[in-house]
Amino acid sequence: MYVKLFELAAFATPAWFLLIFLPTWRGTRWLARSAVFPVLLSVLYLIGIVMAVSESGFGFMRDFGNAEGVTALLGRQDVAMVAWIHILAFDQLVGLFIYRDNMHHRYVPIVVQSVILFLTFMLGPIGFLAYFLARLARSGSLWGKSEIHA
User: Fold this and answer.
1) Cα–Cα distance measured from residue 58 to residue 24, given in angstroms and rounded to the nearest whole number
2) How far is CA 31 from the centre of its chain?
3) Could you give the 3-state DSSP secondary structure of residue 143?
4) What is the pLDDT of residues 120-134, one digit of tens each?
5) What local confidence, expressed as pLDDT, does residue 95 receive?
6) Dihedral of CA 109/98/145/33: which sign?
7) What span, in angstroms and rounded, lies between the C-alpha atoms of 91 and 41?
8) Is the separation of the CB atoms in 104 and 147 below 8 Å?
9) What is the pLDDT of residue 36?
């Protein structure tokens, strides 16, 4: 069943292609506003977690506190599949943040946005860091052109 969840999570790839290659298309803008892909990935993740907990209980969480425990957990197919869906969901959320923020403020040209989104798709945190640094350089602020005032 975990492999099936993994296979179902492949629907995230077309969302990335839309964000990267068709960023101004109306359908892409709708998908980015709706966040439907990370929501669906989160549902798959929830199913995987419920299955894991129902099979093993919450005891597997004690292994998160050390490198050996995490390595052993990720060596299990069920945990690795659910962890992958977790990564897909969060990378998608970061990609949507970059897409929405840049489409609103235009810190970088769309071509550069597409490169950054590709980096986010393939190497998550590196794409985020690239966008964060570009936004910092363009706005001169850690917060960008924030409309939220504390």
Assistant:
1) 44
2) 14
3) coil
4) 999 999 999 999 999
5) 98
6) positive
7) 11
8) no
9) 95
Residue 93 forms part of a structural domain: yes
Does the residue 97 lie in any domain?
yes
In a domain? residue 148: no
Question: Residue 70: which domain range?
Answer: 2-139
Contacts of residue 137, defined as CB under 8 A and 6 or more positions apart, other chains included, come to none
AA identity, residue 63: D
Specify the number of domains making up the chain.
1
Give the pLDDT band (50/70/90) at residue 100.
Answer: very high
Q: What is the pTM of this model?
A: 0.89
HEC sequence for 67-131: HHHHHHHHCCHHHHHHHHHHHHHHHHHHHHHHHHHHHHHCCCCHHHHHHHHHHHHHHCHHHHHHH
Residue 23 domain-assigned (yes or no): yes
CA 108 to chain centre: 20
What pLDDT digit, counting tens, does each position of 2-58 carry? 999 999 999 999 999 999 999 999 999 999 999 999 999 999 999 999 999 998 888
